[in-house]
Amino acid sequence: MGFNCGIVGLPNVGKSTLFNALTATASAQAANFPFCTIEPNVGKVGVPDERLDKIADIAKSAKVVPTQLEFVDIAGLVKGASKGEGLGNQFLANIRETDAIIHVLRCFEDSDITHVDGSVDPVRDAETIETELMLADLDSVTKRAESMAKKARGDKAEAARHNFALKVKAVLEEGKSARTVERAGEEEEKWMHDLHMLTSKPILYVCNVNEADAASGNAFTKKVEEMAAAHPPSPAATARQEGAGVVTICAAIEEEIAQFDSEEDKAAFLGDLGLEEAGLNKIIRAGHDLLGLQTYFTAGPKEARAWTIHKGDSAPEAAGVIHTDFQKGFIKAEVISYEDFVALGGEGPAKDAGKMRQEGKDYIVQDGDIVLFRFNV
Which tens digit of pLDDT belongs to each residue from 231-277? Predict the structure, then answer.
């Protein structure tokens, strides 16, 4: 299962610098002028998880394979993008393909780095992009509704889909995002998914600050937090998340951290700055919450591996992430909780202690489970 996030924002807010830091590459040109990123840059990074390292150590695994996260650095957007201004058409097409949006907001003053609107105001910047996305959605759903109208005549199922599209259109016309559209059950959730609305995607605001504000934020980040708290939640978000996610980082620091080879050096560098962890870790956690994701593990002498699934996925669905044959021929899952695996010292001791459970098709896999699937094809 891929986790695909589009990194968006106005020109010169630090998108490409963040992308370089996240992927530890210099493939995105971070230059002080608009549209320095012309084609979307795609980078995959392993998700750091201390649990995986512990599991691998206990299982004496020869190979450690983390789950991966994909980031797409998308060209900067300007006002009028929904009408094709700047690189608007390309921007909108690229972001439509992503699962979630990481919206980078400039929350620092620097006279040497120009701002397209002449001043720093992250709330205004967020509203600029949200407005362009809503206008693009309105144009898209209007066209879809028109094409649906013909099929809806005399067909109850198509008529229901058409009415839902009209409901989405009406909400957008009120200046509200597609996230605010009430959905009755899984069928309407599917219809929303099929409409590919940009403003229905989960969103994480990343406040890019200067080094001095990396630990505690500043007045700009406080305004973003207030805005995000009132943001309509994503349907995939966890119950504890009331609005959009917010993470404060310093992209320049993250870029420096990426150059260190050892974890000890990274920790020492962060400690000197008064930071407990790298911004990447915070973005990953927030991203998992946004999409309702969790991790389970497989472990053995050959390899220890992390797998990402949706919260609420059944054992067969989790097995299908490894291979579709595992899901088709699912027989049972042998499950050990992470806590028991670590406390007892591995699969053998956990099994001897009666902590390995036999679970069937109805079992909902939990975050941190170590699982062995039995299947027959």
Answer: 655 554 443 334 578 999 998 898 888 888 788 888 899 999 889 88
* C-alpha dist (Å) from residue 255 to 9, 188, 215, 278, 312: 18, 42, 16, 10, 35
As a whole number of angstroms, the distance between CA 362 and CA 111 comes to: 59
For 354, list phi and psi in degrees, rounded to 5: 75, 25
- pLDDT tens track for 157-199: 899 999 999 999 999 999 999 988 988 888 998 999 899 898 9
Stated as kind and residue range, the H or E segment containing 359 is strand 357-359
Q: Which residue has tokens 């720093």?
A: 120
- The 3-state DSSP class for residue 147 equals helix
The predicted model scores a pTM of 0.80
List the one residue out of 286, 281, 178, 294 whose CA is nearest residue 225: 286
Query: Is 325 within 8 Å of 377 (Cβ atoms)?
Result: yes
DSSP-assigned letters across all residues of 75-135: ----TTGGGT-TTHHHHHHHHHT-SEEEEEEE----TTS--TTSS--HHHHHHHHHHHHHH
How large is the greatest C-alpha to C-alpha distance in the chain, in angstroms?
A: 69
Please name which of 300, 335, 301 lies closest in space to residue 318, comparing C-alpha atoms. Answer: 335
Query: With contact defined as beta carbons under 8 Å apart, do 96 and 200 qualify?
Result: no
